[in-house]
Amino acid sequence: MTSWHEFVTMGRFGFYVWPAFGFGLVVMLLNIYWAHLREKAAHREVRESRSTEEESRS
Amino acid sequence: MTVKTFFHRLGSPPYFYRISKPWGRAFAWISLILILVGLYGGLWLAPPDYQQGNGFRIMYVHVPSAWMSLFVFMVIAVCSFIALVWRMRLSYAVAAASAPLGAAFTAVALVTGSLWGKPMWGTYWVWDARLTSELILFFLYLGVITLNRSFEDQKTGDKAAAILALVGAIDVPIVHYSVDWWQTLHQGSSFKGLTSEIAPSMLWPLLVMMTGFMFYYGWLVLWRTRSELLLRESDRDWAQQEIRP
After folding, report:
1. Each residue's pLDDT tens digit, B110-129
2. What are the structural domain ranges in chain A?
3. Does residue B185 lie within any of the structural domains?
4. Which of A46, B52, B151, B185 could pair with B56 as two cysteines, CB 3.0-4.6 Å apart?
5. CB B220 to CB A31 under 8 A?
């Protein structure tokens, strides 16, 4: 790259290059968010299992 | 501890759960650094291609995603085989954790490939062997995910998904060799074994990005596998002790 203008426009390919990288970034961030949600669901499942066990004991 | 003992212990869900957390954090930082370095090299330092101009830079997200889409499916197939033969619970969890990640990599490969295809070929999509077999791989991932979550009994879901993954693994060499076996619009493989036709100034950011994607997958698969283990063993003592009220 020789200038910021060339970087932003990517020659005449900016219309294709930036959406490609943008889509990749969004999916990678979504993967992290989904992993977080799955972890929360797993923790909730363990807690519910514990309270069910405690209820059955009492 | 011998290697055999280590792998034997690694198959134990509580042991895996405990040792995987620090590894996951390390992988996260390594992947972040590598991807940032790869992006700087690919988007700024690498020279424009003499035919494709700056459009070739899509390669820095497309090729690692496409490569990971094949690699992750092979991981799922190998884990499925181990799980079905040796009934290793951890293998089912790794396979279940990998499937959504593999589907995401495949989606990125398909979309970025389309965005590359329009300026280079004049169309977003053609039904050639490489693109079609990659699309089939995406549907296979969706099938594995759906089967895994479609049964009330998790063990039945795990087995059904494992069988589909083993059968579907036949698509991986088809995707890889499609450009050699058939006449396709998609360009041929840039890597022949350990050698490449890509100029070194363009190649190193690609290799850095591919390694970064590998660590990114490593990080998330460890994270997701920990959750899968908790979901599968929520009533076990070790899980109750790990998650405090």
Report:
1. 999 999 999 999 999 999 99
2. 4-57
3. yes
4. B52
5. yes
User: Looking at residue B202, what is its pLDDT?
Assistant: 93
Judging contacts by C-beta atoms under 8 Å, the chain A residues touching residue B239 are: 46, 49
The ipTM of this complex is 0.92
Tell me which residue range forms the domain holding B205. 56-243
Total of domains in chain B: 1
Radius of gyration from C-alpha coordinates of chain B: 20
Domain for residue B44, yes or no? Answer: no
Reference B223, options B19, B16, B21; nearest CA is B21
Provide the whole-model pTM: 0.93
Return d(Cα B87, Cα B82) in angstroms, integer: 7
Residue ranges of B 79-108 with Cβ closer than 8 A to chain A: 100-101, 104, 107-108
Residue B35 lies in a domain: no
User: Could you tell me the two tokens for B245?
Assistant: 């009220």
Interatomic CA distance for residues B96 and B154, integer angstroms: 11
Let me know: does A37 contact A43? Beta carbons within 8 Å.
no
Q: Name the closest residue on chain B to residue A16, using Cα atoms.
A: B115
